[in-house]
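Hey team,

Sharing the Chorismate mutase run so nobody has to redo it. Sequence (98 residues) first:
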Amino acid sequence: MSALTPEQRLDRLRSSIDNIDAALVHMLAERFRCTQEVGVLKAENEMPASDPSREARQIDRLRNLAEDAHLDPEFAEKWFNFVVAEVIQHHTQIANER
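Structure output:
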């Protein structure tokens, strides 16, 4: 059995990265479908778009998950804050349309 060349190894790694990126996009799409439903529910019940106590619990949970996964917890928190900002914007938009 011959060893892979550096170019072959790079191609395999990049293929794995491409597959992971595709999975992440699909998971984010599913997440946003769920949060859209949350936004409708909040708007129908005149609930605020943001829930700071839930967000704080989620940050703690995600930081712990990141540490367990050997991912920088700061990065996980930045990612979460980016996503939540988008979700809150969607929720505010849904509420304003009602």
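DSSP finds three helices and no strands in the chain.

Ping me if you want the raw files.
A.
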